[in-house]
TrEMBL record:
HTH tetR-type domain boundaries: 27-87
Keywords: DNA-binding, Transcription, Transcription regulation
InterPro entries the UniProt entry points to: Homeodomain-like_sf, HTH-type_TetR-like_transc_reg, HTH_TetR, Tet_transcr_reg_TetR-rel_C_sf, TetR_C
Source species, domain of life: Bacteria
Residue ranges of the region described as Disordered: 1-31
Calcium as UniProt keyword: no
Protein name: TetR/AcrR family transcriptional regulator
DNA-binding region: 50-69
Originating species: Georgenia daeguensis
């Protein structure tokens, strides 16, 4: 009588073990999911975002989504990190302050007018409405973009480009708030194309007004 011996999955005549049945893994699952979550968050906001919706929007099996991310928060923050890494808007810090601020504000304006503009606005509004849940996302998205600007403004104060005691936070609030309001909240019926074509003029005037006010103190 032949004795049967148990073999492990890796001991089947030197062959690869059979994979469990299911959907094949796609190498582009992450980028497709990142793109989908950014688009859906822009369209529906935080309350309308679900992992199931991301899977459907991206054309990915739900199991692939749930195997990689436990919550929509986890997926969104990874997508934001991916977006920020590919869209670094920080100008050359060696530029004079006026040129630096114009370059910074122009870059932010173009981003707000782009496909992810509504997502950027929803991140701001969701962070205000859900400060605890969105603390990490706030730091990743809002903080990542503002940190270089903060450093450049502080250097401007230290080197005399701006008066001593300048409230750098107020300068940032003025630039960011003005851009969001002008481009997304109250565009006065102008199309995105019209806003984009007028962006350089608007930004230059915005920066000049801010600097005149600071330097006249």
């Amino acid at each position: 009588m032949t004795q049967l011996t148990a073999t492990s999955p890796t001991e089947t005549n030197g062959q690869e073990p059979r994979r469990r049945p299911g959907r094949p893994r796609h190498a582009d699952t992450e980028p497709r999911a990142y793109k989908a979550v950014i688009e859906l968050f822009g369209q529906r906001g935080w309350s309308g975002l679900t992992l199931d919706a991301v899977a459907t929007h991206a054309g990915i099996g739900k199991s692939s989504i749930y195997l990689r991310w436990d919550t929509k928060h986890d997926l969104l923050i990874e997508a934001i990190r991916d977006f920020e890494s590919k869209n670094d808007l920080s100008p050359d810090e060696s530029l004079p302050l006026r040129e630096y601020l114009i370059a910074y504000a122009t870059g932010r304006g173009r981003a707000l007018l782009g496909e992810e503009g509504q997502t950027m606005l929803n991140i701001v509004s969701a962070a205000a409405a859900n400060p605890v849940e969105f603390q990490e996302i706030r730091e990743e998205s809002i903080g990542h973009g503002i940190l270089p600007l903060t450093g450049r403004l502080e250097r401007a104060v230290a080197e005399g480009e701006l008066p001593p005691g300048t409230d750098t936070g107020a300068v940032i609030d003025g630039l960011e708030g003005s851009l969001i309001f002008h481009l997304l909240i109250a565009p006065r019926g102008a199309s995105r194309e019209e806003l984009a074509s007028d962006l350089e003029r608007y930004v230059t005037n915005l920066v000049d007004v801010a600097l005149r006010g600071l330097r006249s103190r």
